[in-house]
Amino acid sequence: MWKGRYRCRGMRHHRRVTALLLLVSFVLIVVGALLFTNAVEWLGERLNLGESAVGSLLAAVGTALPESLIPAVAVLGGQPGSEEVAIGAIIGAPFLLGTVAMIVIGVSALAFRKRREKGREISADPRGMQRDLIFFLIFFAAGVALGGFGLSHGVRIAAAVVLVLAYIAYAIRTVRKGGDSGGEELQALIFHRSAGQNPANWRMVVQLLVGLGGIVGGAELFVEEVIKISESLGIGALVLSLVLAPLATELPEKANSILWVRDDKDSLAVGNVSGAMAFQATMPVAFGLAFTEWSLDPVALAAGGVGVLGGAVALVALRRRSFGPVPILAWTGLFGAFLVFAAVAPSPEEAPPPGPPPGAPLVPGVPPPPGGAPVPAPAPAP
């Protein structure tokens, strides 16, 4: 009796510590992402790149880096269940960007419609944003579809190379376009608060490295704690990482989008999300193809499919310049449908083991009779 009580108390204490460490990993990732993104934007400005390149490419890659490092840390760690965490983080980021991020933009436009000059209408650069979303729909859909087949390692490597080359071509085109993305003024470098002075290059580099260290440390702690929680609660690590990893790593991006929509800077709000979607559709998926088995279970395939559908809804809404109630309801319905499916779908551990093929012997080493009927087990010796 006393042993049972002590065991229950010990389990509760262990879960509290795990939850606290998971929260610490969130803080490390979010703070690291803020430092890293701020430094990347300043470096892009110092390199005299066009503002749209900074906003749509550098800032998008910067905010996408945390969830991209989680699968890398998971795979390099080699813990049991780490590959599920890696795949969940890879699929989860586009899944939430194509649903929750778009909901945030649409709800923000409705909430601030009275103070916005454009009301609830989203006035973003149609060519650049549509290019991002079409790129996402093509390559992310292809990456998810490849996960439904048992492809050889050579085929996966070839597909990964295609995705990397596709993103390089997209990045070059984005930088060449340059131009104006809405006149967003850079926030002060966090490691340099002196007014009226431009920060030194070494401060940008130091801040970038500190932010990167926070992201990597938080990602490593995140992977460990997600595996512990999945084992403790009996929930698949893939399902947890599908939702938890992007929620932790996308917080700065969601906050920026709300502020930009409020201030009528729609190109920045939508471009930051669509640029991150283009990155997530290729580079992390290429990593998954090259360094994991990339065999997606039904939950991962469903999340990928919902992400693609959410991107398609965003493309239609962008062309109509309205992220109003109809697309918001569509994104909410897609997200809710996935949650229901993930809750009722059996985990791989629950799936019954496959039975023997027809005609296979029930007793090892004893061939079946000519009729194909299985040989009954011999009676025990007296």
What does this structure look like?
With 382 residues, this protein is mainly alpha-helical. It has 12 helices and no strands. α3 packs antiparallel against α9 and α3 packs parallel to α11. The longest helix has 45 residues, at 2-46. The two termini are 44 Å apart. 46% of the residues are buried. Mean pLDDT is 79; it is low at 179-183.
The biggest beta sheet reads: none
Distance between the amino and carboxyl termini: 44 Å
What would you call the structural class?
A: mainly alpha
What's the helix count? 12
Which oligomeric state applies?
single chain
Low-confidence stretches: 179-183
Supply the key terms:
12 helices; globular; mainly alpha; 382 residues
